[in-house]
Design goal:
Elements (H helix, E strand, L loop, with lengths): L20 H11 L4 E5 L2 E4 H17 L7 E5 L4 H12 L3 E5 L5 H11 L3 E5 L3 H11 L6 E4 L4 E5 L18 E5 L9 E5 H14 L7 E4 L8 H11 L2 E4 L8 H10 L4 E4 L1 H9 L13 E4 L6 H4 L2
Parallel strand pairs: 1-11, 3-4, 3-5, 4-8, 10-11, 10-12, 12-13
Antiparallel strand pairs: 1-2, 5-7, 6-7, 8-9
Helix pairs in contact: 1-2, 1-7, 2-3, 4-5, 6-7, 8-9
Length: about 300
Amino acid sequence: MTAPAHAATTAPAATENPVRLDALLARSARLHPGRPALEGAGESWTYAQLDHAVEVLAARLSSDGLAPGDRVGVYAPKTPATVIALYAALRAGAVAAPLDVADPPERTARMIRNAGLSQLLTSDRALAGAHRAAVRARDGAPAEGEALDHGLHRLRVLAPDERPGPLPAPTDRGGYILFTSGSTGWPKGVLLSHGNVAHYALWAAREFGLTPEDRIGSQAALTFDLTTFDLFSAAAAGSCTVLMPDLLRAFPRDVVGWLTEQRITHFVAVPSLYHGMLQQGGIADSPPRHLRLAAFGGEAFAPEVLER
């Protein structure tokens, strides 16, 4: 399925790079304040509400000592609060590193150490796991923590004098870290600037014809690069990001039903999920009527299944 060639998008032009990722959100909050920006876990946030929450949390982080270029891990299940934490870290000038709560504590601790993360932003549900990982990263010493808004918490992993040296420009003013899968060893952090991620997000918003009326189904973990489309391409166009419950991924027919119920127009996933949706989920027989584009990446798509 593909977007119509004539679909208009409100995303800024590529020539406007370098663009800050949080500025994409702020721009849509100015242009589309009352439009839905984010839905999930029974919550719905307009662009104005989301941007305000991000601004307030970013100011709190900065006033409590978070400095531009500091590296911050975001360790929480994918919920609206987690998205707020991610955007707030970016707006505060930090380098944000999404972490997977399903990883063993020792694996997370190694990622914390290797990336030089000075703080962890976590949630009520993930707080115990964040403490376990932080203690391991600190060689057994407990991490100081404090509660934030939206059920979020902050753990201080490194003292100010323990922070690593500044990153090279432009990431000394913030950026993004995505970790490799670790299939050939321990995960390795890939450092990206705002401009690196924004270049892709803006291209995808235009290529896929995103508009403020569109609804993006977000199924991947925040640690997976597919979510840069779900979050930042959506923000660039003023579209709504709809967070799919994680448990649905194991049930292809439920995924197809969710796409229909949530009126999803754009969906990006790995081929293995589409295999299940085609072979057990019934999507070929009863395609979601609002879905205009289904894109894939991350692995090969079996030709005989793709032809269906």
